[in-house]
Task: structure prediction
Amino acid sequence: MVEIPLTHSIVLAAVLFLLGLVGLLTRRNILFMLMSVEIMLNAAGLVFIVGSSRWAQADGQVMYIFILSMASAEVAVGLALIVQFYKKFNTLDTDAASKLKG
Amino acid sequence: MNMADLLWIIVAMPFTIFLVLAFLGKKLSANLTAIIAISGTGTSALLTILLGWSFLGSPPENYSLSSHLWEWMNAGGLITSMSLRLDALSLVFIFVITFVGFLILVYSTEFMRNEEGYARFFAYMNLFIGSMLILVLADNLLLLYLGWEGVGLCSYLLIGFWYKDPANGYAARKAFIMTRIGDTALIIGLFLLFTEFGTLNIADILSAAPEKWASGDPTARLAAFLLLGGAVGKSAQLPLQTWLPDAMAGPSPVSALIHAATMVTAGVYLIARTHTIFELAPLAQNAVAIIGATTLLLAGFSALTQRDIKRVLAYSTMSQIGYMFLALGVGAWSAAVFHFMIHAFFKALLFLGAGAIIMVLHHEHNMFKMGGLYKKLPVIFWTFLIASASLAALPVISAGFYSKDLILWETFASASGGTQLWFLGYIGAFITALYTARMVFVTFFGKTKIEPTQRPGLRITLPLVVLALFSFAGGFIELPHTLGHVQVFSGLMQHALPHLEIRDVAESSELVLQIITGLTSLIAVGAAYVLYIRRRSWTDSIRNSTLVIQIHRFWNLGWGFDTAYDTLLVKPIVYLSRINKNDVVDLISLGLSKAMVYFNKLLVYTQNGKIRWYMATIALGAILTLTISILL
Amino acid sequence: MIVAFYIASAIAVFSTIMVITRYNAVHALIYLVVSLLSIAVLFYLLGAPFAAALEVIIYAGAIMVLFIFVVMMLHLGEKSVKQEQQWLKLSMWTGPGLLAFVLLIEMIYLISLQSLEDGGGMVVDAKQVGIALYGPYMIAVELAAILLLAGIVGAYYLGKEKTTVLHRFLKQQENG
Result:
């Protein structure tokens, strides 16, 4: 197998993570925000896989699997919340749910 | 029955009467109130005489009796008991307090008859007498302080007895606050003594003090000065004397009680009681003498210029207490207490007499509007005359002569006294005779200006006669070498107070000085006779020069002490409090709270309920963290 | 093979950008699937075929299907696309873009500081992962199972139709 430069793969993960962050900050639609969170989680998983590959250890992949399971649980709850949100506010605008305003 | 057991009854009687009158006063008829009011102090006086009789007849061990009632408090090494102790010094004091107090109460039953708050008056009077008894019988300083404060409270209540006039309330507050300044010094002194000796028992302190302190020890000096501060406040000496003339706002019997038996003599008692500490601090003792000498002169000059008969007497009290302080300051302990006793008799008599005159003349206080009373009010005149003779110290025939002469001679002869102090006292004696004679001549002689409408009854005249008897005869229990050599009083006092150290002066000088002082008072009386009876025109011509008017006004206002205190202390404090109306110190805490609110509002902006904003701040935080980790 | 890595990386970055810029939720989801698939390719290239399989099956498969379901349930049509167009002004992008850019610079700087040696590139197959999972990570697996259970229960509870339960007195009040 060809060795992939470690720096490049980590920078790729960072880029993906930050794209997710930009999405999170930019979008007002809660559905898109949830997608952006998924992107960020994926980027984190990617770093684990890179680490696993670098040291040829299974631990990184194990961590990735945990992230995966956590992500699926989160998506399940998150989507349920989105449905409730839509029912309550009749929109997906997060700014509508600003009742915690001080 | 054990003699010591009588002590607590003597103290308890006035308090019992106070409670009875305080709770039942409104329900009792006036006659019943009067009987109850005098019964308590009367019983105490009887018991005191009984006690004194057996005390003198078969003196107890160490010439002292003590009676432990109960333990008051026991906290952290401070063990204070309710214990009474009687020795020669306190015997004289309780005799004066109960006996003179009783006579004053008898007098008051008629004097106050038509006043509102009859029962209230007697309740306060009994409380006053009871507090004073506690003060002089206390065996520890804390109990003494209890009585001390009780006396201060009662003086407030009684000076402001006619509380409907705001001026009286002002006078009462002034008396309370001025004496309180002294009280503060006294309580600090007590703290100091407690930290030094670990006890407040007077006898223990006095016996331990010479072992702990050498003569002139700074701590002893500090303690003595603090005690002196308390004494100066209560006894109306310089510089805390200004309350006394205003204390005339109270009814005349109250003045009599304050000036003769209680209150102002408390300072004399305190210094005499703690004499060992003063002996260990010569500087403080000198200060006592100087304060006494200065006060007696200043007060004497002020008395010369007063028109209100009671104010003359008030200043004369200050002056006479000044004599006692002078005696205490030179170590003539016994002479001071002797003068206290004689002074109590004649000063009570003078106030009661003045009160009676004022009563029959429709509350006229100005003695220049009186006159010619000697025919109209013979009993008052003769008794007043005897008391005045005592005050003026007319030689040989008056009791005041013997006591004052004793002070002057011992001041002259004392190791710590001397010619200067004697001279001040001598001048004071001249002035005393002058203003006393002036008062008598102006009040009783000359033309009748106001007709007395009523004659005082038996309950007023009887106390006057009894007191006159004592003012006359009281002096014969202590006669100088040159004139009979009777030493009953100092013989008794030597068991409680140390003997005076006489410096090396010629015995013959005593007789010379006596003749000088005796002649001086006669001359002063003569001068007053000329000025106020024979040649009133001379007085008027003297009074018309501007300088005399200025001095007259200055003295009349008590040497401007009130004005000085007003400008130096009262006005700056009022000014400061006006500035501080909105509490400058609060600005700090208010500023803090305002800053809190401001920061809270700032933080509220961050809490805008927008989830993206929260995310952005998290990202910002990440940037910051990373930046810091890069830079470091 | 290294070329495949860069191509897959480029696709991943491109499709992710597309995800966050789309107005239509379904389009975004499809780009997200593309992004996830390219990442799966990357996993495979990094010697983690098992993870690559999971990525395709669970992420691109299960999770994305959930998203699509929700989008269908909410009937997000033209209206929401227009709204997204209104919301996503260019100015909206500057702040977050700047933030992310600064973060990226810092991350790259930090990564470049580390003298990371390249190495490994070994294939870690499913067997090894399984042994690790059911060996040292047993408790973590069980915790993950409990987490998933919590997720299921939570999703069920939140997704349930709420029926208002009123006390009879309150009902009377409401009616009367």
User: Anything to note?
Assistant: The radius of gyration of chain A is 17 Å. The domain at 28-91 of chain A is CATH 1.10.287.3510 (Helix Hairpins). Helices of chain A lie at 6-26, 30-55, 59-89. Chain A has three helices and no strands.
